[in-house]
Amino acid sequence: MAVRELRYFGDPVLKTVCDPVTRFDKGLESLVNDLLDSVKLPGRAGLAAPQIGVGLRAFSYNVGGLIGYVLNPEIVELSEETHEIDEGCLSVPELWFPTVRAKRAVVRGVDKRNEPIEVEGVDVLAQCLQHETDHLDGKLYLDRLTQDRKREALREARGKDWFWKR
């Protein structure tokens, strides 16, 4: 169990679609523990496996005192009602932009014993579930911004010290 180092915008792992979890062993248990330990730091609402360099469909969340994880998550329901909410990302630090998200989301997946689980969230938890599932599909919240906001975000990101440069 450990707090894992983050990967930052520009790192190719963040734009890669993750593989499903197929091995439910001690290695997976270690990954889940690392995701949970890493998301418990102050200011963190969610953390997806690619953000720590692991290309598997797994994420953890920490919203309003509710801490957990989902393996092989799939969004199975989104409310028609949306809102524009400020969004940031641990892999794109210091940048926050209004992003359109469904107000309610339901995610289904499995736990580390391959037992079914479901997480339902509204407002911030719904945003987190959508955000982290996007990571597993190789998307960043920046991909959901309006064209003008995305252009601004990319310009700002490229000027940051954390930006991954080849």
TrEMBL record:
It comes from the Bacteria. This is Peptide deformylase. It comes from Amycolatopsis minnesotensis. Belongs to the polypeptide deformylase family. It is an enzyme of class 3 (hydrolase). CDD domains: Pep_deformylase. The active site is at 132. SUPFAM superfamilies: Peptide deformylase. Fe cation binds at residues 89, 131, 135. Removes the formyl group from the N-terminal Met of newly synthesized proteins. Requires at least a dipeptide for an efficient rate of reaction. N-terminal L-methionine is a prerequisite for activity but the enzyme has broad specificity at other positions. The lineage of its organism: Bacteria, Bacillati, Actinomycetota, Actinomycetes, Pseudonocardiales. Its EC number is 3.5.1.88. It catalyses: N-terminal N-formyl-L-methionyl-[peptide] + H2O = N-terminal L-methionyl-[peptide] + formate. The keyword DNA-binding does not apply. Pfam families: Pep_deformylase. The keyword Protein biosynthesis applies. InterPro entries: Peptide_deformylase (IPR023635), Peptide_deformylase_sf (IPR036821). Its cofactor is Fe(2+). The gene is def.
